[in-house]
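Researcher: Next sequence.
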Amino acid sequence: MTLSHAYRLCEQIVRTRARNFSYGIRLLPEPKRQALSAVYALARRIDDIGDTEGPSEQRLTGLSEVRDALRRIGPGETNLVLLALDDAARRYPIPLPAFDELIDGCAADVRGTTYQSFDELLGYCRCVAGSVGRLSLGVFGADDHRKAEPLADALGVALQLTNILRDVREDRLSGRVYLPSKDLEHFSCALDLDARGRFTDPPDRLAALVRHEAARARDWYEEGARLVRLLDRRSAACTMAMAGIYRSLLDRIAADPLRALAARSSLPTWRKTAIAVRAVAGPRR
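Model: Next structure:
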């Protein structure tokens, strides 16, 4: 199998398993599109190991194996995703050790870690999503990397908070709760489910809880949006498209929290396409 096969596989993984991100990634020139596809393909595989069914020890072993494989990555790699990633890291300053943070966050998922405070949840978000923001920045490049890195991290946090709000019910059904215990206590919510999988907390309290968390996520979007000014036009368009899709999803959740808690929220294809088109037209140096 050749390097071109490896990159085609990574792009296919992005198209089918990371569809929201694919709207932004496709806006990059081919070399950067290939490199970022390799980053996201491995991130997707790490997530899949953490989310798959099976004994927790088996999943933790799988995550450790990916960690070890990353330390051995080099020419002659037989895993196609790692082959593409190795090539991408030779062409761009991709901080591969950031994958360790992503693996740490997925291991926390496997162990069923819960979070007492928002600061604790923030640490988790920086592991699983801020790390991907920093990996992406390695592909994008920036006028001032020192300034850009915390902004890429902030944008990753915003996207992860949006994911958490989108998946509250789905996560609860699988036994996971990400929202901070202190916030649940403040709004007098327990996130218990009845026999039909519906939340038993009073609707007004649930809505207030979701809107509170959404307001926090918006603050992180505002901070992360400053990254765009430090990127080249195509990288800025990619970032704006991905962030715009998730920000629009967050707005939909906040507008109707109870609907979002009853079923997984998503945007129609036409809406995502429109956001990507505006991102192409919007970035300015």
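Model: The chain has a mean pLDDT of 94. The chain has 14 helices and no strands.
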